[in-house]
């Protein structure tokens, strides 16, 4: 086994750039392994092909896209404030290997696999906490230069505390985003060490400790197949939508058979439409969506809330895409935006944001309906349900008598 050296970097640190260049020059490794996959490598080299917009929209993984784009923006914003381009140390490593004729190895897992496993592994509560944290991070990023000491991010004690906090915040998310990638990169480094005498690894400081642990105890590595397979998740969304449909139907049936009158039934149905439509419309407009997209969300939301296979945000996004006409070049614009306000003006980002927030609005409407329907109707739910189901039972009994 060859010697493996690991440099733990901060992705927006000039000192990390200098350390990488110095290590390559002094140690003269046989291969330099960097924390990139092929897609991100192509992006740094500006060799990435423009994605197909239709494929992006049809995939409907709007939440995962937003996470990726917002995280990239936060990192880029910090980099702009401290005067260092995000990924500069990776670019420096690539440049040095090209100039010196040293082999370059990409050892990180495909970002699409990582995002899928990250999103699929988290609970609903963890996802809500993550969105809240990201929203706060967008605000903090605007003053990053005054609040963040980049070199502090690389110190072992700070990194350890940060990783521990992330694992407390989202245990399963942290495992998919950090621990699994530690293992994945360790596999590649071990293989490189079997064929090269000197291997220099350039990875984020948060990965260094985990990788070193796996290199010392290779038997602790999880099977490689487990690190790249698709996670089969329980269809909680479909289960929730089905439950909503059943509860709504039971409430309507109870109203019909309780004898409270058609006025109450009409009010209950109108409230279902309004309480879903208004939050969906409001969230669409909050995302910067076109009024037609907002109206679409208003009309579709009461129906989609009862169907486990469709979502209001999808329809609002379709209308938004027809109006805004996003282009493949929008992806590059998103990754180069200098402010969140600028990013929100990009058609593709706006379409994805509309889809995500419209779905949030529809969900708010569902919870609001079941919380406030009986107070608005001015009816005791216990009396209504017991009377309604009792009369319905008698009606069914008489029908088959």
Quaternary form: single chain
The succession of helices and strands, N to C, reads EHEHHHHEHHHHHEHHHHHHHHHH
**Fraction of residues in H or I helices:** over 70%
**Distance between the terminal alpha carbons, to the nearest Å?**
84 Å
Strand element count? 4
Mean pLDDT: 82
Low-confidence stretches: 144-150
The total of helices stands at 20
Structural class: mainly alpha
Task: Going across the biggest sheet, name each strand in turn.
Answer: 1-4-2-3
Number of domains: 2
Keywords: Membrane, Transmembrane, Transmembrane helix
InterPro entries: TraB/PrgY/GumN_fam, TraB_bac, TraB_PrgY-like
Transmembrane segments: 236-257, 264-288, 294-319, 351-377
Protein name: TraB family protein
Describe the 3D structure:
This protein is mainly alpha-helical and 401 residues long. The chain has two domains: 3-228, no CATH class; 236-396, no CATH class. 72% of the residues lie in helices and 5% in strands. It is built from 20 helices and four strands. The protein has helices at residues 14-27, 38-44, 53-59, 62-82, 88-100, 111-121, 124-141, 144-147, 156-169, 171-195, 205-216, 224-228, 236-258, 262-286, 291-304, 312-324, 330-334, 340-344, 347-377, 381-400; strands at residues 3-9, 31-34, 103-106, 198-204. The chain has a four-stranded parallel β-sheet, sandwiched between helices. α14 (262-286) packs across α15. The longest helix is centred in the C-terminal third of the chain and has 31 residues, at 347-377. The protein is elongated and about 90 Å long.
């Amino acid at each position: 086994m060859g010697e493996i050296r690991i440099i733990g970097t901060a992705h927006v640190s000039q000192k990390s750039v200098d350390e990488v260049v110095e290590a390559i020059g002094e140690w003269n490794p046989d291969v330099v392994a960097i924390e990139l996959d092929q897609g991100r490598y192509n992006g740094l080299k500006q060799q990435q092909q423009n994605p197909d917009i239709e494929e992006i929209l049809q995939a409907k993984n709007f939440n995962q896209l937003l996470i990726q784009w917002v995280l990239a923006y936060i990192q880029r914003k910090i980099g702009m404030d401290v005067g260092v381009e995000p990924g500069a140390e990776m670019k420096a490593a690539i440049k040095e290997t090209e100039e010196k004729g040293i082999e370059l190895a990409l050892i990180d897992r495909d970002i699409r696999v990582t995002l899928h496993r990250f999103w699929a592994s988290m609970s609903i509560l963890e996802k809500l906490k993550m969105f809240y944290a990201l929203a706060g991070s967008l605000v903090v990023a605007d003053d990053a230069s005054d609040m963040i000491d980049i070199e502090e991010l690389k110190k072992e004690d700070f990194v350890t505390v940060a990783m521990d906090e992330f694992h407390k915040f989202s245990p399963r998310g942290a495992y998919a985003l950090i621990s699994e990638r530690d293992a994945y990169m360790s596999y590649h480094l071990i293989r490189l060490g079997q064929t090269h005498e000197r291997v220099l690894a350039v990875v984020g400081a948060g990965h260094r400790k985990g990788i070193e642990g796996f290199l010392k105890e290779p038997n602790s590595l999880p099977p490689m197949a487990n690190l790249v397979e698709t996670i089969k998740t329980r269809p909680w969304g479909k289960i929730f939508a089905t439950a909503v449909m059943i509860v709504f139907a039971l409430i309507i049936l109870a109203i019909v058979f309780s004898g409270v009158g058609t006025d109450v039934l009409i009010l209950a149905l109108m409230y279902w439409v309004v309480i879903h439509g208004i939050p969906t419309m409001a969230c669409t407009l909050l995302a910067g969506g076109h009024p037609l997209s907002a109206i679409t969300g208003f009309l579709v939301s009461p129906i989609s809330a009862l169907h486990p296979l469709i979502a209001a945000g999808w329809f609002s996004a379709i209308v938004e895409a027809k109006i805004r006409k996003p282009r493949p070049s929008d992806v590059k614009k998103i990754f180069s935006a200098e402010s969140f306000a600028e990013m929100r003006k990009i058609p593709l980002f706006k379409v994805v944001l509309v889809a995500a927030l419209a779905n949030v609005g529809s969900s708010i409407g569902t919870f609001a309906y079941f919380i406030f329907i009986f107070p608005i109707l001015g009816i005791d739910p216990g009396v209504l349900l017991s009377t309604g189901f009792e009369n319905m039972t008698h009606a069914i009994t008489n029908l088959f008598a």
